[in-house]
Write a structure and sequence with these properties.
single chain, mainly beta, five-stranded mixed beta sheet, globular
Length: about 140
């Protein structure tokens, strides 16, 4: 299995013709011009696209754990069905609200399963900053 896309954005829409519109894609920093009242509840879209290769076990479910500075703040789980001709899996998620406890590093950890067995893991990170708080250096 190969990761094609792992995007974090403001919104995702499923359009006619099996297309997705992804608006407001974040880079690795989500900057706030002023310090809000914490926790900050925001709407976040997560778009994950995976390539299924012939040798891969047939995936059937996923878990996405979102943590802030290593403390879990949200989780999304789901199932999907693919056939032998499926080459690409799209996982569009809307997390609303996603509670942001404070400035710091948000980690989006994805795990893909086949019949309960973990077959793929990856992650993406988003640094939450304000004009008063500099970015956290990723390791």
């Amino acid at each position: 299995m190969q990761l094609l896309d792992f995007l974090i954005a403001d919104d995702i829409r499923h359009e006619l013709g099996n297309k997705f519109s992804i608006m407001g894609i974040f880079t690795d920093v989500f900057g706030l011009s002023q310090t809000p009242k914490w926790p900050l509840n925001i709407k976040v879209g997560v778009f994950i696209r995976l390539k299924v290769e012939g040798k891969d076990k047939k995936p059937d479910s996923f878990k996405l754990v979102i943590s802030h500075e290593l403390k879990k703040v949200a989780e999304a789980v789901g199932n999907f069905t693919i056939n032998d001709q499926t080459k690409t899996i799209n996982i569009p998620l809307i997390l609303n609200p996603l509670p942001i406890p404070n400035v710091g590093l948000l980690t989006f950890a994805l795990e893909i399963f086949s019949s309960g067995e973990s077959v793929f893991k990856t992650k993406n990170q988003l640094n939450i900053v304000t004009s008063q708080a500099p970015p956290v250096i990723k390791s």
